[in-house]
Amino acid sequence: MAGRIPDVSNEWDKDKLRTLMANAKRLGRKDVDDLAFRQLCRVEGRKFDDPLESEFASVMRALEEALTDERGKTTRLSRTRQKLGRVGVRQTLIDLALKPSPSVGFLKLLELGMADMSAEALILKHRAEFPAEVVEAARRRLTHYDIKLPGTVG
């Protein structure tokens, strides 16, 4: 693995991705670990036809994996999953963006260097599906944290 970055874009086996992540950590290859982690998160989204639902499923997986790793025990975002079941992904994203303060998930994604997977980033990416005030709230939060995403205007 020295120097070479493997192409994991078509790897959907969770066990293989976890092994790759473990080996990358052991070898000090954060770049490879990050790629494998993102792909592991994308595996979760394959269950959904709707691109927004698929991407949010990846976000949920990223947060659950990070919290599990941090706490040393399996951690699930039960309340968020319950809310998704009640109101759906779009309303869940709207509520996250309109909260007066950032969610724990938003801050965790920043810490992980994955702000591009935040609810706010997803809203900007899929801005046509959200009311203007929600898009503006998402943009303001990202700007407040000095997050610049490709294809978005500050």
Architecture overview:
This protein is mainly α and 154 residues long. The chain has a domain at 47-144. Helices cover 64% and strands 0% of the residues. The longest helix has 21 residues, at 51-71. The N and C termini lie far apart (38 Å).
How would you summarize what this structure contains?
With 154 residues, the protein is an all-alpha fold.
Question: Layout of helices and strands, plus pairs?
Answer:
Elements: H1 14-26, H2 30-45, H3 51-71, H4 78-98, H5 104-111, H6 119-125, H7 132-144
Helix pairs in contact: 1-2, 2-3, 4-6, 6-7
Largest sheet descriptor: none
Kindly state the percentage of residues in helix: 55-70%
What is the count of DSSP helices, taking H or I runs of 4+ residues? Answer: 7
Q: What portion of residues belong to β-strands?
A: under 5%
Order of helices and strands: HHHHHHH
Number of strand elements: 0
- Mean pLDDT across all residues, rounded? 92
Poorly predicted regions = none
| Shape, principal axes of CA atoms | globular
User: What structural category arises from helix and sheet content?
Assistant: mainly alpha
Ends distance: 38 Å
- Rg, please? 16 Å
Pick out its properties.
154 residues, mainly alpha, 64% helix, 7 helices, globular, 0% strand
